[in-house]
Amino acid sequence: MAISLTHKxxxxxxxxxxxxxxxxxxxxxxxxxxxGRVVKPGELIFFTSHLSLMLEIDTPLDxxxxxxxSQTSNTxxxxxxxxxxxxxxxxxxxxxxLRKHPRVFNKMFVSMVNAGESGGFLTDxxxxxxxxxxxxxxxxxxxxxxxxxxxxxxxxxVSVLVFVMVSVLPKFTAFFxxxxxxxxxxxxxxxxxxxxxxxxxxxxIISVIGIAxxxxxxxxxxxGKALIDKFIISSPIISRLSxxxxxxxxxxxxxxxxxxxxxxxxxxxxxxxxxSNKYFRDFIDQIIKHVEQGGKLSQTFATCxxxxxxxKQTVTTGEEAGKLSKAMLLLTSFYEVxxxxxxxxxxxxxxxxxxxxxxxxVGLIVASIILPMFKLAHAVG
Length: 381
What we know:
By secondary structure, this protein is mainly α.
């Protein structure tokens, strides 16, 4: 039996919804538990925004899901939606159908949908989820943009240096033979490095692979992740920016959950599961314990060493005024602008640094090969 579920939103008008961005969107990193394939951000945003739109025009939920399923090109995602349709036709709530696929729809998504179903404002909730997804993806894109060009130049510089040592420098070995005493130290060093690479290239490859695997194991270990998380929020270079990013993400999730009528303790639990940094998760654990004992959320914020003073003051004011979610969302908007500005500043600093690395490689090659050649040719002449 088909269930007709419309959930007309009477509180707020839904914001204009984005169009499906297609297969060119970056990977969101979530994998299906049953199918093991990545769900792209564009596919998830497409699903959420179009579901909100179709419910807004009073389309029955099962028909809305069928329409979305027919427009979805990802065959794995189609199977997930088909499973959800069967659940809806059996009389289950949308949140129950979503809950069966935690690797696709996380706890935040399910909790907000459940609150929207209970309160009768599901379309508004779905529109809010779309906005959160778009902002998170925009942040990921900003970080990638800030790091891509400097990383490319640095890798190019190292690659050029290895190419010179393996392919170019050996051709000058005969010319430099017997004259090592008058060659610059950089030239002698590169010649030794060239001989080492030619003779033990396989050992270098094994070493690089071993280091990569070792770092991956270390990063995924409990101790390693704790050290990396500590470095991220305490390093003098990136701590301020990373703290703003984590704080913004935490406030956005918590503010939207509370605004969606999710109970405070449940909202804190969901937010904790969505934050990757161990020290922010520990901070949320402290809030949960304090609130369970009857304390105020703002009291724990006030004692946290890595939370900005403006956040502490605004959260305290918002809680006292009974407008905690509004205060958190205002803080989110403010720090989103600051994060954007900080990422642009970081990019302007990293690009010259990468150019200096590239220039250093070129200078090393000139000083180690070209200049000694002229010097020796002049001595012979």
